[in-house]
């Protein structure tokens, strides 16, 4: 892993495109809710805020830049946190649509999925008796027969489209093959270190949540990237805290947030993103680790700075 340091970057993924409004009353949907929860997460210790947008009327994921424009300036004015915009959107979107916010706003960081995959959300259908909006069960059921497309052409398109604005990427790797795809683009010179590698555990269609899965992904990344990468980890659902704790003890950085898990303990919904940040911060500090500030994160990841964005 690159840049041995006891400072741990905490990323908070505020709303995402996985969970639907019926699953939790605390999932932020409107621009005001997203902004407020993001600010609170930063105040709790998140150095990076990973951002999606939603239709304020029904909570459906949207990549319309106008939706992001409702909260990005407020976040820039209210917090020094690094703002990281998704290019993943949701599995039902085409890459051109998913790219638009990062292309328009030129953030310091944008996420980038490193491979096509099955992305199964349909098991969540059986956990809820009714839904607020008609689109929700349809969205979940559709994941039974949808491939989340991230082809070599798609990845190259995003990299080349953003090459002139200084945006660096959070490379989201859901399986071992995604690390090799990232190495391919590094070898071609389309990405440069330090690589910010976010390994994702627990999505149906990606790698599992066993401790050996975590260790295997780290071993593979170490072999492929040596000291030219920064490792971060997220665990989906109830595996969020066990996996981030394990990764932190192995020298990794961590990601939490309601995009990845709605929970704050067994059977207890997290009432905010900040609640999860505070919980992982307690774990990290209990391990004797220091929480990275936004400026620490900018230095570790070689970012261009918050004054160089287009919002």
TrEMBL record:
PANTHER family in alphabetical order: 3-KETO-5-AMINOHEXANOATE CLEAVAGE ENZYME, 3-KETO-5-AMINOHEXANOATE CLEAVAGE ENZYME-RELATED
Key word Hydrolase present: no
Record Pfam families: BKACE
Gene Ontology MF annotations: 3-keto-5-aminohexanoate cleavage activity; metal ion binding
Keywords for the protein's UniProt record, in alphabetical order: Metal-binding, Transferase, Zinc
Stored Gene3D superfamilies: Aldolase class I
Superkingdom to which the source organism belongs: Bacteria
UniProt name for this protein: 3-keto-5-aminohexanoate cleavage protein
Swiss-Prot/TrEMBL cofactor(s): Zn(2+)
